Amino acid sequence: MSAVEEEQIDDQDIDSSDINPQEQVDTEQYLTFIMADEEYGVDILAVQEIRGWESATPVPNSPAHIKGVINLRGTIVPIMDLRQRFGLPAIEYGDETVVVVLKVKLGRAQRVMGIIVDAISDVYDVPAEQVKSTGLGDNVNARFIRGLVSVNKGMVILLELEKLLTLED
Amino acid sequence: MAKILAVDDSASMRQMVSFTLKGAGHDVVEASDGTEALEIAKKHEVDLVLSDVNMPKMNGIELVKNLRQLPTYKFTPILMLTTESAGDKKMEGKSAGATGWIVKPFNPDQLLSTIKKVLG
Amino acid sequence: MSIDLSQFHQVFFEESYEGLDTMESGLLAMDIGQPDSEVINDIFRAAHSIKGGSGTFGFSQVADFTHVVETLLDEVRSGDRAITQTSLDLLLSSVDCIRGLLEQLQAGDDPDLSQAKSLKAEFEAVLAGQEPSGATQSTESDSASSTSESVETAGDQSAPPPSQDNVGEGNGNEGNGNEGDGNEGDGGGSHGWKIYFCPEAELLQSGNEPTRMFRQLSELCDGQFFVKAVTNKLPTVSAMNPEYCYLAWHIELRSAVDRADVDEVFEWVVDSAEIIIEPLALASTSTDPIASQPASETASEPSSTQPSVQANTPAAAIEPSKASANETSEESAKEPSKETAKANKSTAQESSSIRVSIDKVDSLINMVGELVITQSMLGQLGRDFDISRVQRLQEGLAQLEHNTRELQESVMKIRMMPISFVFSRFPRLVRDVSRTLSKKIELVMAGENTELDKTVMEKIGDPLVHLIRNSIDHGIEKPDVRASKGKPETGKVHLNAYHQSGNIVIEIKDDGAGLNTEKILQKAKQKGLVPEDAQLSKEQIFDLIFHAGFSTADQVSDLSGRGVGMDVVRSNIAALNGSIEVTSETDKGTRFVIRLPLTLAILDGQLVRVGEQIFIFPLVSIVESIQSDDQAINNVGGYSDVLKLRDEYVPILQLSKAFNIPTTQKNLQDQIICVVEADGEKSGVVVDELLGQQQVVIKSLEENYRKVEGISGATILGDGTVALIIDISGLAKMSGVSLKHLDSAHKAA
Asked: How far apart are CA C58 and CA C162, in angstroms?
């Protein structure tokens, strides 16, 4: 009996989504993390894994925000300090410090890179229409930002990974 | 479906033939010359042999002669894949014991329609 | 069913290039007086395969041209034509031409057919008998007739898509049936066909089976198919051979069927059967025609019918059946194959592949098998481990190490190919170049089967070409000069490859004039490469030819002076982590020795420490390592420090400075200096400590990061951390250390 009811409810859901176009709008999932009390989000499909901070091998003559390269199961992966990239004050790396390993398509190639953040926060579903532009036209960091979205009471800054990972200084 | 032995020293031809036959549901074993084909034919009993004529080590004509010596292959259909449109080359294969021939170049569909002639 | 033929293009191109190489080397080795029939067969077969494949895969231009090449080769093969210098040259040019066509097609371009056209005309002239054949019995008319036939067929093949007719080309006219009115018969066929089919007894032994033919006929006429066996030839049971066919058949197809389709069914048996095909008269369809056959044929000796029918499978028992399978194949058969060929031009290129012998794959599979066993053994050990089993653990780990090493070696071997892939082009090169220069040169090759990494192979080709051209051009003297020196007129160039202690060594040796030390030194001084008063050893002078800017202008000829100097040769080899050295003796000859790593994936490395970091130097670039001491180091002219190494001055660079690494060491003294060599220039690199030497697997740093000056790649050390591999040449460049600076410094001092 209850199974039948559930089916009916399912049917209704499908029907309503057919009728109501708003339900069909793309939602994207974002993994968010904290840095200097701000919450940032990255497209969860780009997240390959999350790992604890371990020391990296420095690469000579690299920008300061590139902390070096690590061995990720046989692949050489650069690690970027996101605070330094954004010009935020540096902090000591601690137990909470995590590296989010991102895999992004850049043109025809794929690039894997780790970013160091303070701590992981949450995963949100964000409907595309709710993403607002930053209004930070000339801010240097604006090019790394896809948009802003309010979740619960706070504001999440969504990152444009393709730009972030191209390594332009 | 049928089990077919495809013999050609050209890898691309072999692949094309094999791919076509497999696509039609047949089981295909490949060999790149007559010697190899003979070995395979002894191990697997195949229902049809498709063989190129010009091959190193043992050519297609020799292969047919050798196959016909084997009791298992006395009546098995053997088709020569030949570029010779001239009659005497075809006949050379026939007198060696080949069932028939397919003239190169052929396309996959021609191949399939031809082998239908000899598959029970 | 439609199959995309373009998926086979890559394989076709690869095997065709191989075939062309076979043709080329065979032609070059050809002794015109006594051609080796095996070699001619190989050449013929290669041309034949290219023709067949290009026809099949829609490259009719190539098939068309290759056809005339094949025709000529076939005549040579069958002894109807002697090979001459003219035809040999023509064949060699055609190899180039076909290769060109294929390369253009592979690149997706429309091929330029002008060369093919003119060569084809030449072939046709030769085939038409302009160059009379050597064999006596082959008359003019013979070769002429074969030519006209070949032209015809060639024309046929240039017609775009191979049509269905091609398969069933054999026509009934060849048969011994008396059907003089065969053409008119088409009209008569509107009512159907009456067929008498009487095969030879041995028919079954060619794999032809009347039953199947009847089924085909039945499908053709949509079941309006009637057959009656003629049994009058049946012997008595005792005389009967069960493998023979004693029956004949009267067949009627009672619907409109193309005569060609009927002929096609009998295509393969026209010569081994009596076949009479006649249009079916309207009248005879009205009654049962089969029954009207003379009764004696059907009814005689019924007792023997049984066994014979069994032996033959009961052909007469075939029921007219509805055929469905035929429709599908006919529909799709009409699909033009040219369209597929065109649509996929762009996709065929790009991917490069290697062919791996089954042996190598099998050995890999074996090793993986062993590895799995070791793994499961260790896994079991791990599940209930106690200290008493430490011994077994150690054994297991040793076995794992053994397995891993073997596996690594085998995987590397997959990329290994015999160096003959590069060597094979040299006979042609030597032949062509020595002709141009009117020199007599014999190329002697050895070690063609020595294997090396595919990537290394691809990159070593050009430097080798340069060195060999160099030997021919500058090394070997003209015949008269050689004679005056008391040397044989024919000079020799030896090309040899072999393995030596984990490297592949390639030697290019000639018995020519040797390097002129005086001239080289003079040139070097003139160019400011060495100081005027320099006293250099013979080796040092030889070494000068590898320096950038040492292109001796008066030596530049059409051949070697093509903008590539020995400096490029050396840097190309250095880029492969290899080295080159030269020895020479006046009038005895010159010998270049190239040493290359077997693979680019693994490097013999020297681990060094700078500050807290570990770097890897390619072992091959390290000349020596020394403990620095006060006396040897000078600071010159405000430039950099220089190290006096015996009678040489070597610029010093500090890795900690170049790479901005904090280091505890302050003084140059008490430090280790690695004297390294890149692009023919030495420099001393200061490091804090020399650690061990080990083989390292080279990983790309660029893949996820970017190119870093002075670094060629990265590797993973035993503890899992990353270490960077130094690019010696890049390091020297970024530090601005070079012999030129040294010279000016030297002069200043």
From this structure: 9
Write the CB contacts of A108 (distance below 8 Å, at least 6 apart in sequence): none
- Asked about C70 being catalytic, the answer comes back as yes
Q: How far is CA C708 from CA A59, C698, C711, C721, in A?
A: 8, 15, 5, 19
Query: Locate tokens 């018969």: which residue?
Result: C185
- 0.90 surpassed by pTM: no
Which contiguous run of DSSP H or E holds residue C500? strand C491-500
**Closest by Cβ to B54, choosing from C48, C55, C330:** C48
Which candidate, C527, C560, C347, C257, places its Cα nearest to that of C437? Answer: C560
d(C-alpha C483, C-alpha C488), whole Å = 6
Question: How many Cα atoms occupy the beta-carbon half-sphere of C112 within 13 Å?
Answer: 7
**B105: preceding bond cis by omega (within 30 degrees):** yes
Closest among C56, C64, C262 to C153, alpha carbons compared: C64
pLDDT value at residue C724:
95
User: Residue C239 has what DSSP assignment?
Assistant: G
B64 interaction partners in chain C (CB closer than 8 Å):
none
The answer to whether C108 and C348 have CB atoms below 8 angstroms apart is yes
Write out pLDDT tens, residues C224-237.
788 888 877 777 77
All chains having 3 or more CB pairs closer than 8 angstroms to chain C: A, B
Q: Distance from CA of residue A72 to its chain's centroid?
A: 19
Is ipTM over 0.90?
A: no
Mean pLDDT calculated for residue range B74-84 = 84
Cα A22 from Cα C533, distance rounded (Å): 88
Tokens (6 digits) for B86: 């001239």
Q: Encode pLDDT of C171-223 as tens digits.
A: 434 434 444 444 444 445 677 888 888 888 788 878 888 888 888 888 877 77
H helix count then E strand count, chain C? 26, 22
Measured CA angle at C575 (ends C571, C579), to 5 deg: 65
How many Å lie between the alpha carbon of B89 and the closest alpha carbon of chain C? 12
C668 contact partners, CB below 8 Å, separation of at least 6: C628, C633, C641, C652, C654, C686
Q: Which residues contact C727 (CB under 8 A, 6 or more apart)?
A: C710, C711, C712
